[in-house]
Amino acid sequence: MNSKKNQVLKEAFSQGRLMTAMAAHNPLSARLAQDAGFGAIWGSGFELSASYAVPDANILSMGTHLEMMRAIASTVDIPLIADIDTGFGNAVNVSYVIPLYEAAGASAIVMEDKTFPKDTSLRADGRQELVRIEEFQGKIEAACAARRDPDFLIIARVEALIAGLGQEEALKRGLAYEQAGADAILIHSKQATPDQILSFVQAWTGKVPLVLVPTAYPQLTEADIAQLGKVGVVIYGNHAIRAAVGAMQAVFAQIRQDGGIQNVDANLPSVKTIIGLQGDAHMRQIEARFLR
Fold this sequence. Notes:
Blueprint: H1 2-14, E1 19-24, H2 27-36, E2 40-43, H3 45-51, H4 62-73, E3 80-83, H5 91-104, E4 108-112, H6 133-146, E5 153-158, H7 166-179, E6 184-187, H8 195-203, E7 210-212, H9 222-228, E8 231-236, H10 239-258, H11 271-277, H12 280-290
């Protein structure tokens, strides 16, 4: 089953079809993303960290993230792209990590060229320190050598624009990571307009496709991205957790204001809806077939 998911993602890259990936921090948010029509799930380290109310700075263990990826992959029928930050260490760590994520059901990993522990890319005045190009090439090569299925994708994330090092450095790193075996390059920017990203895409001469995360520049639409001709996946990196937080804040405040649930209850999804999302119908089929 997972090999089919891997093929779906790889074919989207090779055929030039723009794949859309929605972030998820648990199986329920992943199922909702699949139901909404997204083509893939982004197993977001930021979202998972936020759901545990800790910073996105390698504070959660690899085991915590890995088990959540396993739970998500077993819940949805679309590919899962796992965000493994910096690979949880050096090239040796990466060699051990990749087979675990592959076995957990991920169809791809994204690994970024920051030092460990990392700081989240969109944090104001964050500590954005990059490793040497040669060191990260070694991590990419280790990841490629460790995968069992050649359709399992290794995506290298370039943080040079985030670190303020400019387009020349970003292009240099992207091409070096492609040379090391990366199947795609994720280029990230925190500027409020897409100009920096559009300039990078125009200047990109590599043969592998690009991946964009338009969190900071939401005015760039899927139609705009598809017209660029060089982008394989657009990732909506943190919208599930932001939607959940916004909804909970509004509902909780309304309950406190009203002194009860009399005004909010009618506007919430029904308990029946939640039970349906839990897979109740499948459980009933099992009961009918096997309970004696």
